[in-house]
């Protein structure tokens, strides 16, 4: 049975504070790393996307929509062809907040791997400004509406395609809201049982939950499995020799295995 290894990274790159120096440092790391597909969130400006594109030439295929501002702040880098990709915006719901300017949503791409086509969904949900994920919270209702849209997007993907859904969900991994979403979308949690925070602890937020996720969907003929771990936890040296963290989030890197006959969907 043919087996294809896929190295995937998802990372919220943070839109404020030393953005260009941090992105230059990130680009250097990505260029030297052996990731096959990289899902980035909070790449807000087209100039940031151009910077990353120039400095990561080993990723010959990229997806990012929009003009001055990228749709959803989402960008995907791939060493393999992106057969097609599109962006869907989440429903606009209150309360009013500056975050709405990011036009958050989901980016769906079909990646032509050596083992056949793979759908990769890169997403960033609205933040919970109350840090309260209980059922009645106003931001929980926003998350539920966005996750309903995301579940419909996943359901609309060709059932013959294995699927990876990755990104910053801004909802704790153990939350009933995410459990219901996974059931509706038919997804398995690659990090099930791991409660390690993916947001860097701070004095204000000393015990953050696991907000970043990777989910998988296999098909009857092509199994998608793997394991994952946190990355980018330590400070890095910026181009001006200062040390800084790459983001207020950690990255998640995954080693995925696609088993089954190659299937190219055109």
From TrEMBL:
One of its GO terms (molecular function) is sphingomyelin phosphodiesterase activity. Residues 10-249 form the Endonuclease/exonuclease/phosphatase domain. It holds the Pfam family Exo_endo_phos. It comes from the Bacteria. Coiled coil: none annotated. PANTHER family: SPHINGOMYELINASE C 1, SPHINGOMYELINASE FAMILY MEMBER. This is Endonuclease/exonuclease/phosphatase domain-containing protein.
């Amino acid at each position: 049975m043919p087996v294809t290894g896929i190295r995937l990274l998802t990372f919220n790159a943070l839109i404020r504070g030393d953005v260009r120096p941090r992105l230059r440092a990130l680009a250097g790391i990505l260029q030297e790393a052996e990731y096959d597909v990289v899902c980035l969130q909070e790449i807000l400006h087209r100039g940031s996307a151009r910077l990353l594109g120039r400095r990561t030439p080993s990723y010959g295929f990229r997806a990012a929509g929009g003009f001055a501002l990228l749709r959803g702040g989402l960008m995907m880098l791939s060493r393999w062809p992106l057969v097609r990709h599109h962006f869907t915006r989440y429903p606009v719901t209150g309360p009013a907040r500056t975050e709405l300017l990011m036009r958050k949503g989901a980016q769906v791409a079909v990646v032509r791997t050596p083992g056949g086509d793979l759908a990769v969904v890169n997403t960033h949900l609205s933040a919970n400004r109350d840090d309260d994920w209980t059922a009645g919270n106003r931001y929980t209702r926003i998350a539920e509406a966005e996750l309903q849209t995301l579940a419909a997007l996943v359901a609309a993907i060709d059932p013959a395609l294995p699927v990876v859904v990755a990104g910053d969900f801004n909802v704790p991994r153990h939350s009933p809201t995410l459990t219901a979403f996974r059931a509706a979308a038919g997804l398995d949690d690659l990090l099930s049982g791991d409660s390690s925070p993916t947001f860097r602890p701070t004095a204000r937020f000393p015990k953050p939950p696991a907000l970043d996720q990777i989910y998988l969907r296999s098909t009857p003929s092509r199994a998608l499995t793997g394991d994952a771990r946190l990355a980018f936890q330590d400070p890095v040296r910026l181009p001006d020799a200062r040390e800084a963290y790459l983001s207020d989030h950690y990255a998640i890197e995954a080693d995925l295995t696609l088993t089954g006959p190659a299937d190219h969907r055109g």
